[in-house]
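Hi U.,

Before I forget, here's the chain from the pilot set. I'm dumping it here mostly so it's searchable later in email.
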Amino acid sequence: MGFSASTYAMISAATAVIGAGVSAVSSMQQGKSAQNLANHNAQIARNDAIAARQKAQFDATAQKRKARLFAGTQRASMAGTGGDPRDMDDVLNMSAEQAELEYLAILYGGEMGYRAGQQKATLASFEGSVAKQRATGQAASSLLTGASSAAGMGAKYNFGSTTTSVPPLAGTMSSSLIKT
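Structure:
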């Protein structure tokens, strides 16, 4: 005994709906995974930003220490020549100014690294949100496609049609009892 064409159509419609549901769930899971990955990347970028700032502060402090040592070496060297240290103030001042510029440049570089890391974090978070929204749209599209396919099959094969006539059972009710 085989199935009728309408039975095959009903099975096909049910399969389309189930397939759409599976596809929708898969899309949502992919979107959530993409968002989780993006959030992870954003956290890494934030950590990198903080590390860049901290390294710059460390390097700037080390540079200041070197500059103080160098200034002491310069003074000792100048004193060793027997000249008047006041005559060499221009050289000492120029060295101090250069050291301060290097210190500020290191801090600036660290701040730029921090800002770049924060921007990467923001971008990664945004990409995660977009991936989740795109997956939600794909899930909705899958559900609508499956529903449309099932509805098309239903219309073609009259699923749920109320126009199907069923003959009354013999002897159960007299037509004279039914008044319209």
